[in-house]
């Protein structure tokens, strides 16, 4: 039958429209079914939600400090209204035993006003300063009865100086000379009875914009961890080159001193250039061709594994990102946590590490330990290695650490931890965690453990075990699961360090327990639900925003801005969010001549300050 041209055009238009709709529906389905897209979309949605949820003052400006997530949640006012007013005079605070240390040189007097600057602390806390919601100074061994202002904390590093950069200071050279003066103290070639050295790896990338506060904090890391300790720690600035202009650089290129000098001049402030180690994705591809995955989210620790291969002088590697801050003496924090972890017995260590210690509920650490022990169902606790099941396509090439027989009650006491996490270590099975089923080249039933964010201390042993398995088998899990999972498979010691976490909302402590530990306070511990409180579930995400340390929150940055008295940022917006002057905070006060005085605490994330 002959059809008119108009009818034919209508049919073709309809078919074209139907095809277009099918394509759109397929793309939407594919996007939502892909865990990578869900992961990054959720982050984008989170930032958009945060921006819309912020309240405005009458002038229409966003008031970062007055954000209240829900109407029925009140802020703890004393959190924001404390200062050093009325406190006793500050004193020089040095938690390091220097009796066996050959004192090391710091920056020249021209950069310290001709005097030796020191870190000062106030000998008491401001009245009514709230206690930590989770963890405690007394647990990990840091001093919780003193406080710091931005001047007492960063005065030694130039916070009140007009000069922002110190181009004539060479922190790398100072660090190396300090180690050489004290190298007789350290185990560098297997000597028994000598101290092991550790590295602090500060992770970054070439697009990072160095601001004054980044300089201050990096100076404090080198001065307090390395110079003050006589070279016990070495600070390494590890920079990933992500730009297209560096895409063709090979592993061999990163041994070219001329190139490295050029990269340092381009991307690193002069004073830190001798601390820098550069790499790009090609380095990781050469190391791990079977893995087929080299991005940061999936393989955050491949670069640290690479570093461990070339730095056998270090027994452990602390890794933190450039958005990490510590209000307090860096050595006290990192060293105290390492010493605390060494004292922990292995019995129920995985179960303890999956839960927050909440002082208002558990009362004491010993009680917390007993509660976990008594309430862990028989046979459900982890003791010794939990390797992947052997199949026809997979068998572990490295023998797991065997259980001692009989198992002593104090097994693990005096043993350095292979994994120390600054967040709980939990089992994602059945949790809905976006990377729960990412077990590349592992059997599907392989047990996992995960601990976001990617901050912690890792032994050279656990890093090289992961390295060897990735080389031999191409096995991998998501970055935040990598080291805890390797430790689980091989029966290594892994622990969550319960450092003080603060929370600025007035919520009943039993409710906090329910939300963040995934069960009613006092109920039997259920390992199958150990992850329940750790997920960023939509109904709980608002509570996570008001913590001082987590994968993503608001409070860490807000507190830090208030701590350093930052009136406004150098730009009107940060990551799409406006930030208010410091006078706009919950107490409505301005400190004038007084400064906020905070106890030592870890903060994450703190960006663009």
From TrEMBL:
Residues 41-61, 377-399, 573-600 are annotated as: Disordered. Keywords: Membrane, Transmembrane, Transmembrane helix. The chain crosses the membrane at residues 12-29. Signal peptide: none annotated. Residues 573-595 have a biased composition (Basic and acidic residues). InterPro entries: DUF3405. Pfam families: DUF3405. It comes from the Eukaryota. This is Uncharacterized protein.
